[in-house]
Amino acid sequence: MKTAYSFKSFGHPSLFILLVFSIFLVQDMNGQDKFWAPADPPRAHYKIDARINLPNNTIEGKETIILDNNSSKLISMLAIDWSITDSRSIEISINGKSMPLLNEVKKPPISSPLLYSLPKPVKPGSRVELNVKFSGGGFTRGDKKEIKLIKWYPRLWWNGLPTHDVFEVKLDVPPGYALAVSGRLNRATGDYENEGVRTFGVYLGQNLKAEEREVEGVLITSLFTEEGAECARLCLETAADVVKFYKRWLGFYPFKFLYIIPGASQPMGGYPFASGIVVIHGQERFKKRPLLHWKWITAHEIGHQYWGEYVMDIDVPAWLWIGMGIYADREYTIFRGLGMDKHTGLMNRYLNGVRKHLNTTVDIPQAHYRKIGYDFNNVVIHGKGYSIISALEFGLGKETFEKIYKRCLKDYGRKPLGYKEFWKVCEEESGENLQWFFDQWVRSNKYLSYQIVSKESLEKNGRYLSKIKVESLGSLQMPVPVKAVFEDGSSQIKLTNRLFRVNNLEFESKSKLKEAILNPDNKLAMLETPLEATSEELSEIISLLPWTGAGEDALKAYTKAKSLKLDHVGHWFKLGLTLFDGGYYKKSFDAFEELIKLDPPKINHFASLVWMGHLQDLFGNREKALEYYNRALKYDTGRTMRHDQWGMKIDRKWIEERLKSPFKWGKK
Of 605, 429, 449, which Cα lies nearest the Cα of 518? Predict the structure, then answer.
């Protein structure tokens, strides 16, 4: 049926033009001729048949990409993570019809992502199949003893968001190479298959041996050199034990396969190469490290198959998956009685950074992250990342934290998880507002430092009452455990209150107090001796002081300001007022005197002299007070200095009243 439009029916030609424009506008708003990425990108199914050609140093292949639009909008444009160069090519078609490339570049190179307009938009609930031919070169270097492939095939691109996709991959591998892939071989089809992975990795190692273990449905394969055989077999046996432990603890293992492959020559750790493939460095130098190292690093890298490969991290810097993965290997090492030396060492990486006055704030802009001039990966991402998770588990309790841990695996499996979503889950499971925790640990450079400043144990009616005084000397406050050990071998643990700088803990026992131990299980990354604040750090401390109720915090800041010879007018003025509010009148007077030495602006000079007069009145020195009031008049600018916290307005009229009657103070 044809539809005819008549200008006459609209009364004016411009109305017709407006209607046509509106139709195109609606089409564009529905997703046509526009690239967009769903908030939760859909999973795709990749069927790949590829051949590795070593003599030509190329990979050639065909793939089918099956995409189901599970969003609520039309998808009319797709992006492919692939580049076109002299050695890389791609052709995409749908139902035999070639899809034109939209990137406006006349000739290679054309960088990723490549944009393609679909012949027909994919409606919500509908499917599209892309047929792809590709080739890539230059993937090997040197003597070709090892071939490591991650981004070796074209893949859908969703604004850089990670996805878990299903793969069926057939590989034509050169002879003489052992193979590790992100899938398990289906012997009937010859395909390496998985139920969804973040990255499909391919590793080929020349002249390597292989051994396997099947553990509760997971096939574990270790590839190794002759020199690394003893270490590889230990790692294989450990991996079998670790997978069994993780499955029983967490209820599942994310993949049906696990490969352990050799890495660098030095025994320095490892890393997750791809989904289901982990690297253990330095296997040929097995004797250079104790057995604990090899067992721990195996458990550590397998933990990242849950966190990083199964639950994906979207934060930059990406610290959460590191901390959560390390928590997994900590639970295994505790279960096997291997101790926590490795985990204490990770905390010490962070604490050493704190001692060097490094800025260890975790939540920082990407632009700042790229400009950091120290080993942020070891100090913050690994060291502080684990310290945050350990502190959170301690603060919430093990039972609650494990509910959070398992829920995140359940709700965010095959999905990205950022720390803000993690924060929300923590609050929902604990029922607590945890802003105080994340603001301090993640969003600031604050650090934890508590000390036992005194202890006593007094006998009364055959029982002992022991008192332990604990003071917070750092900038971060949270509940800290204090263990009281008594002479009969018994012990008790109590927690400090995070809102108190000084905690007085009382213990009742049958025998006398023998010793008091802070942080007895070493779950908190805590400095024994607080830092001497730098001028920059002190300025931040002073700026965060409340105008009323700062008390001892203001006094500590004043002492540090004196030792550092602080030269900031505003900070000395705030110290003068907060010290006055806390009743430290002599220190307050001294703070205003320090300000005067800096030749401040007239309004600050004026107000400081008035306050020095107030304090002299409170000291009972009326003549001195009058001297300061009269000096203040010389700096009067006509402006008013308000102190709303006390309902005071200091101006000429205020001084004239003080010349008649002394300043009196009593908080209302």
Answer: 449
Residue identified by tokens 């001028």 is 535
Residue 140 has pLDDT above 80, yes or no: no
3-class SS of residue 280: strand
Q: What is the rounded distance in angstroms from the CA atom of residue 226 to the CA atom of residue 233?
A: 11
What token pair was written down for 230?
A: 């003893």
Q: 309: Cβ–Cβ under 8 A, 6 or more apart, which residues?
A: 197, 198, 199, 254, 255, 272, 274, 275, 276
User: What backbone torsions phi and psi does residue 401 show, to the nearest 5 degrees?
Assistant: -65, -40
Question: In whole angstroms, what is the distance from residue 135 CA to residue 139 CA?
Answer: 11
Query: What CATH superfamily is the domain 535-660?
Result: Tetratricopeptide repeat domain (1.25.40.10)
59-84 pLDDT, tens digit per residue, is 999 999 999 999 999 999 999 999 99
Cis peptide, bond prior to residue 121, ω within 30 of zero? no
- Say if strands 146-149 and 97-98 run parallel, antiparallel, or are unpaired: unpaired
Beta bridge partners of 536: none
Residue 641: both structure tokens together: 């200095």
Q: Which among 250, 337, 348, 347 is positioned nearest to 296, based on CA atoms? A: 337
Q: How far apart are the first and last CA of the chain?
A: 85
d(CA 85, CA 114): 12
Q: Quote the CA–CA distance of 240 and 455 in Å, as a whole number.
A: 49
What φ, ψ does residue 319 adopt, rounded to 5°?
Answer: -105, -25
CA distance 103 to 113: 9
Q: How are beta strands 481-486 and 491-495 bridged, if at all?
A: antiparallel
**Secondary structure class of 189 (helix, strand, coil):** coil
Length of the chain: 668
Phi then psi for residue 542, to 5 deg, are -65, -40
At 562, list the tokens.
């004196």
CA distance 567 to 573: 11
Which residue from 612, 613, 624 is spatially nearest to 587, judged by alpha carbons? 612
Strands 312-313 and 416-417, sheet pairing:
parallel
Per-residue burial over 75-97, b if 16 or more Cβ lie within 10 Å, else e, is bbbbbbebbbeeebebebeeeee
How far, in Å, are 38, 215, 310, 564, 604 from residue 82 at the CA level? Answer: 20, 37, 24, 56, 62
Model confidence, pTM: 0.84
Q: How far apart are CA 150 and CA 453, in angstroms?
A: 55
Neighbouring C-beta atoms of residue 604, cutoff 10 Å: 20
Residue from 284, 281, 250, 252 nearest 267 by CA: 281
Residue 520 makes CB contacts below 8 A (sequence gap 6+) with 481, 483, 493
114-122 sheet: strands from edge to edge: 114-122, 75-81, 155-156
Q: What is the pLDDT of residues 4-22, one digit of tens each?
A: 333 233 334 343 333 333 3
The CATH number assigned to the domain with range 311-441 reads 1.10.390
Tokens 């009058």 sit on residue: 626
**What Rg, from alpha-carbon coordinates, does the chain have?**
34
Domain 535-660 in the same topology as domain 311-441? no
pLDDT in tens, 611-663: 999 999 999 999 999 999 999 999 999 999 999 999 999 999 999 999 999 99
* 535 token code pair: 């001028």
Per the rule left: phi > 0, alpha: psi between -120 and 50, beta: everything else, 355 is: alpha
Q: Where are the alpha helices (DSSP H) in 431-476?
A: 435-441
In this structure, is the dihedral angle defined by the CA atoms of residues 232, 261, 389 and 519, taken in order, positive or negative?
Answer: positive
Instruction: Tell how far CA 401 is from the center of its chain.
Output: 17
**Domain edges within the chain:** 311-441, 450-518, 535-660
